[in-house]
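Methods — Computational structure assignment.
A single polypeptide chain was analysed. Its primary sequence is given first, followed by the predicted tertiary structure written as structure tokens.
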Amino acid sequence: MTLTDLILWPGTKICERMGVDPEADAGLIRSMMNMIVYLCVLLTIVWIVVG
């Protein structure tokens, strides 16, 4: 497993659970899911550090 596969893993698994091909539409749905997951993770970290 490469670093790229690890970074894209959350979006790939979410798309598979939704029944969407992660490679379809140039991976835009997978990218959106990854952005949502990483946004939540990073915001939580920021709130912990700042708060």
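Note: The CA atoms of residues 37 and 47 lie 16 Å apart.
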